[in-house]
Amino acid sequence: MPLIAMNREMGSLGKDVAKALGQELGLKVQHHEIIDHLANRARVRKSHVISFLEGSQGLFERLTVDNLKLRVLTADEILSAAESEPGVILRGWGATSLLKDVPHCVRVCVSAPRRERVRRMMKRLDIAEEAQAARVVDQNDEAAQAVMRRHFHIDVRDINEYDVGFNTDRMSAEQCVEKILDMVKSPQFAETDVSRDKLRDVAITHHVRAALRSHVSTSHSWVKVSTLNGRVTLEGTVENPEQRLACAEIASRIKGVLDIDNRLRNAAAPHRASTL
Q: Would the pLDDT of 270 be above 60?
């Protein structure tokens, strides 16, 4: 199934590229669709989710919203969408970073020089003053960069974070779509048993993290989760034996989990690795 993760700058025509790709491939473009579900799962206002994802939180929101939980749930939503059939185009929200280890995922960046993006936003927003449009573009850029640095420790403008980057000052949206389609159909990005297994393992890891963060008995546990061939490894320190067992039990309920390697340590007990 085609899997495309895209990051784009305001005014870069990235939205147009994603829409045209969706039409060509018959795929849904996921972007704002995750917001309502996230708000329901995290039990916060929709506006709080939007400000979190867009990097525009005020002091009150930073103090009252569980940002770690939102980050974990956002990753869970992205991976759930990535597993969907017959494929999907994921625009923004860190999808390019979350799916970097999945071989058949095409990771794309769409950008353009600031002057060109400012010109486009003047036209799109019907703004007469260039300085006003420039402030809108700069604020959006700064927020997007801050979110990606904070949550994924990456520079959104680092081309090494993507498989391909396009400058729409030099290429049209149609040309970008054509190049991406070539990549999707190439043997290099073909979906294989190995790539499907990798996507499954990455997804399981994030599903387990979300489940642990959402359950009342484990919500404040600091657990490192990793998955290989359906075997989930839990590492870290928990408060008591009951919490250790709860983490393993919750993880075992996730679809696709074949085994649990429970290496969690009780805070007051000596280190001892075991399988549960």
A: no
